[in-house]
Amino acid sequence: MELTLCLIKPDAVRRNLIGSILFMVEKAGLKVMALKMLQLDKRQAEGFYHVHRERPFFGELTEYMASGPIVAVVLAGDDAIKRYRELMGATDPTQAAEGTIRKVFAVSKQENSVHGSDAPETAAFEISFFFNAMEMVG
Ligand code: IDP
Ligand code: MG
After folding, report:
1. Is the pTM of this model over 0.90?
2. What sequence ranges are listed for the domain Nucleoside diphosphate kinase-like (predicted)?
3. Is 90 exceeded by the pLDDT of residue 11?
4. How far is the CA of 12 from the centre of ligand 2 (A)?
């Protein structure tokens, strides 16, 4: 059993897609272990995405991530990190496979509706960024 962090990003929350995205996640057999809605401020968004601080789109990305409420979700399952990355689809929705969350819902490469951890170390950092032990079931 592995844990991963899913974020439903501001563009998706704004368009009333929380339920549609969680429906796809649960249908894929991933288990919700913790969930909260919140709005990051700019500094918190910079902290979450600090690995991208040198990228040209960092300012825009963190501005967007702080632009409205998000939903943070801890998902569990066998091989959950890889399975959820596959369900999300490629970063750029024009490159995302049919039936993936980003293919169905994303607006652009930046406003791509969801986040997913990419490795066990990043999953551990990202889960602890949003949740403490008491907030997780199991
Ligand atoms: P990922 O979310 O598929 O793991 P990353 O490369 O880790 O993609 O990038 C983090 C986030 O930064 C993306 O989900 C997207 O919102 C944004 N992003 C990535 N590349 C670009 C870009 O070229 N222009 C604008 N935003 C980008
Ligand atoms: Mg990433």
Report:
1. yes
2. 1-138
3. yes
4. 17
